[in-house]
Design a protein that fits this description.
7 helices, Cytochrome Bc1 Complex, Chain D, domain 2, about 150 residues, binds heme C, mainly alpha
Length: about 150
């Protein structure tokens, strides 16, 4: 009788031990599987997704260069005033044709009696903007494109 009880206890012990071991193995394989999944995820992010920084178009890149070189000393691409007004939203205030004429020779636009030009000229203490006759229509378009995406 006693040996039977002892045997039963032994059996139960073995079973409990087996359950613990099995549980441990399951847990471990689950953890490593999780790591695998995460690894795959990270990899797919690196290989399949687009770069986070948008690629600048050639026009905008050219505009940035021209802006930095010719306009930055007096203008910000934001709405901040430097010497002249911030150029943010300029393509909503004026059309490209006007902006081109203005940049190439703002004095001529003022002289033509353009109301807006006279107003902005007076507002900024009649500081005459540099003439940029060397800038082509395409150059001005690039500058406006650059300002637009800021
Ligand atoms: C020496 C300073 C100076 C430089 C350099 C300059 N600007 Fe200006 N800009 C001004 C001032 C000042 C005004 C305000 C009008 C005025 O006084 O003639 C102005 C006005 C403007 C306006 C009208 C803004 C509005 O809100 O209506 C545009 C557009 C403009 N500039 C574009 C440019 C671009 C593009 C360049 C570079 C190619 C440039 N400016 C370089 C001083 C400058």
């Amino acid at each position: 009788m006693e040996t039977k009880i002892k045997e039963t206890i032994k059996l139960i012990r073995t079973l409990v031990l087996a359950i613990v071991v099995l549980f441990g193995i399951t847990l471990l394989s689950f953890i490593s599987l999780k790591n695998d999944i995460q690894g795959v995820k990270v990899e797919s992010v690196q290989t399949n997704s687009l770069p986070k920084v948008p690629v600048e178009s050639a026009l905008v890149a050219k505009g940035r260069e021209l802006f930095d070189l010719n306009c930055k000393s007096c203008h910000a691409a934001s709405d901040e005033i430097v010497i002249g007004p911030g150029l943010k939203g300029i393509s909503q205030r004026r059309d490209l044709d006007w902006i081109t004429k203005w940049v190439q020779n703002s004095g001529n636009v003022i002289k033509s009696g353009d109301k807006y030009a006279i107003e902005v000229f007076n507002k900024y203490n009649k500081i005459q903007m540099t003439n940029f006759e060397k800038l082509s229509d395409e150059d001005v378009k690039a500058i406006v494109a650059y300002v637009e995406v800021q």
